[in-house]
Amino acid sequence: GLFTLVVTVYLFLRPAQPRARLGAADATRIRELLARQGDRDSLGYFALRNDKNVIWSPSGKSCVGYRVVSGVMLASGDPIGDPEAWPGAIAEFLTVAARHAWRPTVMGCSELGAEVWCREGDLTALELGDEAIVNVADFSLSGRSMRNVRQMVNRVAKAGYVAEIRRVKDIPRAELDRVIKVADSWRGSSTERGFSMALGRIGGPGDGECVLVTATENGVLRAILHFVPWGTDGLSLDLMRRDRTAQPGLNDFLITESIKAAPGLGVKRISLNFAMFRAALERGERIGAGPVLRAWRGLLVFASRWFQIESLYKFNAKFCPIWEPRFFVYPGTRDTPRIALAALEAEAFLVW
After folding, report:
1. Helix 147-158 vs helix 250-261: angle between axes, to the nearest 10 degrees?
2. pLDDT of 98-114, one tens digit each?
3. Collapsing DSSP states into helix, strand and coil, what is residue 348?
4. Each residue of 164-183: pLDDT tens digit?
5. Buried-most residue among 16, 23, 144, 180 (CB within 10 A)?
6. What DSSP assignment string belongs to 298-346?
């Protein structure tokens, strides 16, 4: 009887969990905003994930994509659209969160976005890590700093691997379906990771401007990269998959080839992976780092056994990118454990 009472009360009082689904009308409006303002944020296109809902500002000039996980209302990146309309979209977001007793949280917003969120919502911001951005015009494989990448790329090329870089709209549907099927066979599990920097699909309706990079060895597909548009002159890395038996350094080869082919696609900048706690990892290994910073770095390295923290930082750093800080915005310290679990669940690092 006690068990029945407790379960009944829990089911009655638990937060609502709306079905996350992006409607066709909202997707069309988001694409219109991205066509006008999409160059502001490299994460803007990921608002088109099928498992996100969207809230619009009263003027319709800005919106916030979100998903509710364990009573936490998670947004990712900056609001889409005109920055002058961001406060309206944020106010609507916070109103809905308060109505349903959800904890409003933003993952991976820019410094400007964090300032607006904190000012409009009385929230707290924490630097979460850095986004690696490669300026195509400045990239070169020459020099001592690029020696490791240069050697890996040359080794892969000598092994007979060939890269092909195309817009998704230029790939026949039958070929695209074959690529997706082969790439799915390389996955170790059926869990699809990603929320803030993953689209979750290849070749979907309206995704013709995305870029698919393939690597073949003697005509056999061995690896792929998938990029989404970042405004009119940029790309943002969405997906990396490869055959586990393929040549080491194949991802380095594909990224390098993508950068080389970028001018032909009208691309001037490419956003690579997001490196969590990059500053702590970098400063913690320097000479003169204090005991607290060294201990924090040691904890991050230990956690890297299960999460890609140090490995992503080192992979990105090889390409000598520009580091752009990204922030985590949340209500306060009291809600931190609950929000952290929800974020891990949304990114599929924690699967119940």
Report:
1. 100
2. 999 899 999 989 999 99
3. coil
4. 999 999 999 999 999 999 98
5. 180
6. HHHHHHTTTSSSHHHHHHHHTT--EEEEEEEEES-GGGHHHHHHHHHHH
